[in-house]
TrEMBL record:
Matching SUPFAM superfamilies: Metalloproteases ('zincins'), catalytic domain
Role, per record: Single strand-specific metallo-endoribonuclease involved in late-stage 70S ribosome quality control and in maturation of the 3' terminus of the 16S rRNA.
Protein name listed in UniProt: Endoribonuclease YbeY
Record's cofactor remark: Binds 1 zinc ion.
Enzyme nomenclature, EC number: 3.1.-.-
Keywords: Cytoplasm, Endonuclease, Hydrolase, Metal-binding, Nuclease, Ribosome biogenesis, rRNA processing, Zinc
Cofactor names: Zn(2+)
EC top class named in words: hydrolase
NCBIfam families: rRNA maturation RNase YbeY
Species, as recorded: Mycoplana ramosa
Amino acid sequence: MSEIDIQISIEGGAWPDEAALLAQSARVIGAAAGHLARQEGQPFPKRPPELSLLFTDDASIRAINAEWRGQDKPTNVLSFPAFPLAPGDMPGPMLGDIILAHETLQREAGELGKPFDEHLTHLLVHGFLHLFGYDHMETDEAEEMEGLETRILGELGLSDPYGDDPVQ
């Protein structure tokens, strides 16, 4: 597992307490970072890079989404890299920010028939991969990113979020 210095802020929504969010985030982000480091065959920097996680509500993420992406609607997760990275690049001292909206995650988890914590885990991985330059705008990019998400989630004991097959 690769180390990341995770800073958490809870600004809205009915999130679990900070200690529970930090424990889950550290486990998930550590697994994702470790997977990326193994995939690239190089360790993370000696000094752990910093990651900011903001846990908020739909109203707040809607305002951020409108301001930064021109989309006046809530979304589940937003990622803002501190520095542009291409897939495979190693990070500098600051990774960036991941913002998650409680109501949207709760609603989506219900629609998917998944526990909230599993959906949160998936979106933490998803947001983290965006900080490393992975995207899903084009079909080939989406396949690569979804494959990475599926492998990382599998390492965490979760099923493929894009398919129907449970982890064996």
